[in-house]
């Protein structure tokens, strides 16, 4: 039974309605009008029902097809009611008419009130006869059950609907009254339960207090001496009232200094310290904290962390303070060492050539150097929200993804890929990634170097090689023994044809010919033209 809250949704409709009283009311309505009624919650549970028509219970609800039609009608009625209508009238696919009205209690729809089944006009006996044959019903019994379904006039239906609407109002009022009564009872029960719990707690505290009071002096001494940090109790005038053993170890002269001013005993001063958590705590009535010098014999030997807590009596008056003191000299030394190491590592990271970065397995950047911001053009805030792949050219992302996976599997990877800047420029980079583990988490630390110059040189070298290879492929060499005519000097080719020497050489090399005439040939061919004399003079 849901009894947790005092709202309508914490109680079921069954808990909010007086079912026996409503059953009598429904029975009287059915006897007078001949119209059955029913009440169902939103889970489909029937809380109240009159006498259903036998045509429904013995026939329509028994066959799977007609039963599905019945469920479809229930759903249609419920959906129309949920749409805010005061009531809805619906003719089901089995030929009968139903009316439904919502039951709303304190603004919440908790169930529905149904009346039916009936006809508004005389039934079509032929339709029901065919339906009996279609679904294998005993036709005679089916039509007899049909005759039991009343045909109601519009006026009577309107009266029934008015009754139905009024009845749902009665249900709502009944539920509201019961809910308010439940809320009042629950509130009273809670108050009684709370008070009982308070009384039990008060009794328990009282017994505990009595026991503690009996052992307070012994207990306080044990607590003081068990705590490994210093405790000093001061009155409102900053006089030392009580200290624990640790304070005696830190300040040996305390044996004769109880009752003295704290600033005199602990710091060798004649006036309160400029930074005094005790004075602030007395004023603010709150815990105050500060770091103060650890002073022995007028010399500072370290640092103490001092918490001051006000002691307030039952009347609300601050009677003094309790100082809780920790020697944090070693911690401060370590903190300074860590700061120095951090400054060193940051300086080292900044001085690294190229870009440096650290990210986890989710791709979230944890650290990077200033070069990454300068080269990429992204701000520190932007990089903190970016993925490593945002810096990689699209065509190289699959390669880089596989390389990152290999690193996290325990390897070291070098990969060349395009580094894409905020401006859209793509710079050739050589990325090197290592995995390191810390506190069962895996991280990738990587560096990237700009290899634009190297890539350019390699590209120029490759272009030169390709150019030379192209040139060499065009060079044709003459080699081996050439069959040449001893008389006309023609050369025989591989196919057995004799070619002029200049044609053969031109065909098998890049050589070109220009024709002239030698002196000997000039004298022989043109003896009368005296050409050989000019040629000789040249």
Strand order of the largest sheet: 2-1-5-4-3
Low-confidence stretches: 1-8
Question: According to CATH, what is the class of the largest domain?
Answer: Alpha Beta
The gross shape turns out to be flat
Number of strands: 17
**What is the number of helical segments per DSSP (H or I, 4+ residues)?**
18
- Main beta-sheet annotation: 5 strands, antiparallel
> Which architecture of the largest domain does the CATH hierarchy give at level 2?
2-Layer Sandwich
Strand content: 15-25%
Structure commentary:
- There is one protein chain.
- The chain is α+β, with helices and mostly antiparallel strands and 538 residues long.
- It has 4 domains: 8-184, Beta-Lactamase; 227-333, Beta-Lactamase, CATH 3.30.450.20; 356-454, PAS domain (Beta-Lactamase, 2-Layer Sandwich); 483-538, no CATH class.
- The chain contains 18 helices and 17 strands.
- It has helices at residues 13-16, 19-33, 54-60, 64-82, 125-135, 139-147, 154-226, 245-250, 262-267, 277-284, 329-351, 370-376, 380-384, 397-408, 452-474, 501-507, 519-525, 531-537, and strands at residues 37-41, 46-49, 88-91, 97-105, 108-118, 230-235, 240-243, 288-296, 299-312, 318-327, 355-360, 365-368, 413-420, 426-438, 441-450, 491-492, 498-499.
- The strands form 4 sheets. Strands 2-1-5-4-3 form a 5-stranded antiparallel beta sheet, with helices on both faces. It has a 5-stranded antiparallel beta sheet with strand order 7-6-10-9-8, with helices on both faces. A 5-stranded antiparallel beta sheet has the order 12-11-15-14-13, sandwiched between helices.
- Helix 5 packs antiparallel against helix 6 and helix 17 (519-525) runs antiparallel to helix 18 (531-537).
- The radius of gyration is 53 Å and the shape is flat.
- It starts with 12 loop residues before the first helix and ends with a helix.
- Mean pLDDT is 82; it is low at 1-8.
